[in-house]
Amino acid sequence: KMEVDDDSDDDDDDDSIEVVALIDKLMEVAKQQSTFCLRRDTLIEKVKKWDPFATEQKEITDLLKSVGVECERLGAALPIYAKREDIVEVVSKNQVSVILGETGSGKSTQMVQYIYESGLADQGLIVCTQPRKVAAITLAERVAKEMAGTVGALIGYKSGMKKKMSEMTKIVFETDHCLLNECLTDSNLSHYTCIIVDEAHERSIYTDLLLGMIKACLKNRPDLRVIITSATIDPEIFIKYFKSGPELRVSGRTFPVDVVYSDMELSKEFENFEMKAVQKAVDVHKNEETGDILVFLTSSVEIMRCCEEFEKLMAGRKDFKCFPLHGQLPPNEQKIVFEKLPPGIRKIVFATNCAETSITIDGIKYVIDTGVAKEMKFDSKRNICMLGTHVVSKSSADQRKGRAGRTGSGKCYRLYSEESYKNMSTSTEPEILRVPLGQSLLKLAELGVDVKLYDFVQPPSEEAIDSALSTLKSLGALSSEGITDIGRWISKLPFHPKEGFLVYHGSTKNLLYDSVVLASLITNGSNLFYRGLTESEAQSSAKSKSQFGSTYGDIFTWLEVYKAWSQIPMNKQFKWCQDHGINCKVMNFTKQCVKEVTTVLRNELKINVEREFASDEAATLSLRKMIFDANMASVCCYLGHVRAGYHALVVDRQVHLHPSSSLSSHNFQPEWIVYTEFTKTSRDFIKGITVIEEEWVLEAVSQGKLHVDINLAKQQRIKLVHKETIGSSIFRKLVGVRYSQLRVWEENLTNTGMRAVVVEAESDLGVLNVFSASTMSQDIVDCFNTVKREVVEILESSEDEIDILKKTGTEPSGVRVVLGQGGCVKSLLMPDQSNKILIKKTSSQTTEEEIREKLRQYGEIKECVRFKRSDPWGFVRYTSFAEAQAAVQGTKSDENNVAVLKIDTKFKKVVSKFEAKLFWCRRPIKGKGTAFVKCPPIERAGLIGRNIFLSGRLCELKVSNRGEDLVCFNTGTAQEVEIKKSVINILDYDEGLNQNINVTVVREPAVKQSEEDLNNIKRYLSEEFSRHIKRDKFSLRLMPVKPNSLNQVAFIQFESPIDGFRASQSLQGRLQVNDQLVEISLTLKTTLSVPKSIMNVCEHRFTEIITDLKKYKDVEIGIRKLKDGNFAFDIKSDKTQSMIESRELLQKELEGEIIDCKTNDLMKRLLLQQGKEALRNIESESSVLIVINDRKEQVHIYGIEKHITQAKSEINKYLDKLAKGKQVDVFLKGQEKPRGLMKELLKKYANLRDDLIEELLLVM
């Protein structure tokens, strides 16, 4: 090996590690063999003592079973087997023992068996606690199988309300919560002789409370044995806490795991981790050898999305199977994950952090670690819980890695850098230090424990305890004397005290079942609507929110969904959820929760729950009031602007409705609300909204239950505090592309101390409006001025390079003119010269400041631009070529950040003279701007009342008087394309499917032009160009227009390209004809887009036309097939008129045979849904293509002449039938319609149109 090339060193190291692992494994196996022999001898001695005539068959059967079990243990060779005797000895000699075992050592399944077989717990039960329900059940099943039995016999479990035990049971797996509940009736836990607290490193809140109760009973139970086991934990925490107990380690070295880190930028490592995880899983499956894959994600919703996305990307392949694994899965679905698959099929498991410990999935060789987990953090100062995605600890990351090295060497792909791993906290913070303590303290109070004197393993802050006690007292669960009757009632329920409070008061108001379902939904329902991965799924979800949406908020919307779902037969519920975009797992989990609570009420409180919902408005009012009473601390007041959101009064924080809220989809902002969930992502979002009445808030304040100033809260509503008027160039720079910089302005102004900032832009007026609850200081005004100055400096220093042609006029000479502000010639660059340099050999971590620091020594840096890609990093522009050349020479020997000259050429081959196209609108937008939007009914329902952002302002979409259209007023200068994009954005629409949306802007009619008008326009344009270039150096042609043409066009030819370009650039944005801006285009090429659908039916006709045009019109026409399957016609000519005529001829062919429906009411019926379906049928029968233009109210027919004639004949027959019937338009939405009409109709008619047609006997 020493003679092998140096490149093999890394491989040798890996081999050495694996050899050491194998040697350790051999030593371990030798110890396991010794353990087996001891057990064998014990069994033999037992047989020797038998009386051949008195031994019963059961004893023989049990012995044979024990032999079989022991042989299986030796074969499994789990690391803990080698330590069996050590464990039994330590436990027998010590009341408390701490045993550490690495992942996969077998501690969770084997420990209980060793204790049972040793006889240490003959006088009672052995209990092994788990922090999760799923682990308790799966471990019980695993151990029962290993001991050749069944669950419910020797091995049992308790998990929530699920229980499988019998008189034979000696080993019980249960959740720490269950065992804590047993302390209520038996504080000494007298049924148990051995308690194993497993997975103690997770430090769940119930684990910590349980340890405190166990410690308290140890002095009364000298016979009790306590074992604390963990994979990764500092044993000193527990040794000091119990003031005794030795530490025993079960090392059981796993095989080496190769860790592969990501080279992603630190700031972007934990962004888009879902897609990164799926892509990495796809990459591993395609390129790595056999072995199963485990992917760590943060939630069940993410897992569902990733499973579906992986299957979609791997469509057609049969060599894999995806499995979800999380705590919300029913037991039968959890079992499937652990079953072996046939050879050649790879198991791919997408899991939450429940797969870190407790449960081991055999066969995992590859782990993909996103480095994040969902965690609830409690802010005791503000008394709010914040659910967020947080970076995991090193111990969690190591646990995840260990899952890949169980049976052989493996790989762990960490989707973050090694530096990020080093920066992780050592271990996860105990749950008791990061969650609200309400339920825990209530449990302690029920146990009769003084919270202030309770011996916590690691005590939470006094602030957190006081906050929880204050909440419990406000709910009436605690008093100065201890737990109240209400508190005892609430403590029985598996809810946070707030939800328990809701159930309690529901029972006093004859609304018990409603309150139980509401409490269950509050606990589980925030992900009830499934957004979906496809457009149809997204529309289904949007329709469901309209169908079930309640104006009383999210919780009552969830209740409406649950009511409808519960009426569906069980075998059809899954399909119903799919059809309505509902998360079926959330519904089932809610149902299980309701069942568990009703069982508790029946068994613990002797209350039978009638499964019947209240239906009257008074009941809804009472439920809303109860939700308010339980959640007073989260009361919020509207800030007066949809983008400002709400002011959370108690915590003094600006919050926003989550996009998934039913109120968001209804565009409804009530004045007063409460929320049940706070989520911090890009902003502070609130979920679980309930609309409340102001009088309730006033009443709570007057009674001293709520300590807020309502008048002050109302003063927080935002108002206009500053108006910034700026020019068009600076305006574009300040607001950014599609107004993207407005959010940055809002954040910057908020950081200065301003409250609830909203910045709006009005592009037509060049105005930025700042709204806030605070006043605008001079410092902030100066900030605007500073930014404006910076933008002006950038504009003033900008340059452009223009190619100079050779004498032929067709080729670039390589010489470029550098034009600066006002078209002034700054310098002349030879073919091998440039004042720009590209930055090569850079790290992705290199910052702009580092580049500037290194390169400013060579000259004045005028511009520094970073590219999105990593190499080259970007470019730097100097004042002169000499400075750029110095940078190249000065860095050529460097290892990184090397400068290379960047030579630009913008030359495009031109023919004849240089020509520019001038065009302007002949039909200006009418008034302040009005737009009509036409779209399908489902989208239309979701748009009514929504706001779109146009020209820096919000414009509301309303129902128009034109029938199916929506109307939007005060659109300003916004054109059809901009409005359409805004509509698509709020629908979250796929732009590839945007043909369903049509927008029409109302314009002034075109004014008929006289010969004198045309001459005046031509004279005006010629005079303006004459200011920049001699009159005899250019010629201007004004093109004739049709009476209804939207635009007017002129072409201007220049003898000198440089002079022509300079003049055109100088006049760009400055020319106006009839108050309309003249656009100047410098291209001689025109392109026509041809949809593939039209090409398929008209290809032969197009070929004939193009052949004739090339022959008679002196044009070049090329046909290109685009990536999306569509086509493009590229038209070039040195004769402008030929180009225009050729384009017009092809354009006319692209319009097909037109049926204009605008002027005839009967023809307009072709544009209705029934008419469109008739046209679709005619299209298929006549072998033509029919395209419907809703905006222009036209029908276009394409195909050969014979087929077009046949189609038109069928259309006439259809119109004749319509003429004999009667049409009535009934609008189902609008201001004058009753509130909730659409909701009720959708509830009654699942397929609204078809069901109404059938019921009312209408004719299609």
TrEMBL record:
PROSITE patterns in UniProt: HELICASE_ATP_BIND_1, HELICASE_CTER, RRM
Signal peptide: none
UniProt domain Helicase C-terminal: residue ranges: 277-448
Pfam families: DEAD, Helicase_C, OB_NTP_bind, RRM_1
Protein origin, superkingdom: Eukaryota
GO molecular function, one term: hydrolase activity
Classification via InterPro entries: DEAD-box_helicase_OB_fold (IPR011709), DEAD/DEAH_box_helicase_dom (IPR011545), Helicase-assoc_dom (IPR007502), Helicase_ATP-bd (IPR014001), Helicase_C-like (IPR001650), Nucleotide-bd_a/b_plait_sf (IPR012677), P-loop_NTPase (IPR027417), RBD_domain_sf (IPR035979)
Keywords on record: ATP-binding, Helicase, Hydrolase, Nucleotide-binding, RNA-binding
Annotated SUPFAM superfamilies: P-loop containing nucleoside triphosphate hydrolases (SSF52540), RNA-binding domain, RBD (SSF54928)
Annotated family: Belongs to the DEAD box helicase family. DEAH subfamily. PRP16 sub-subfamily.
Protein name, entry field: RNA helicase
Provenance organism: Arion vulgaris
Upper classification of the organism: Eukaryota, Metazoa, Spiralia, Lophotrochozoa, Mollusca
Name of the gene: ORF197470
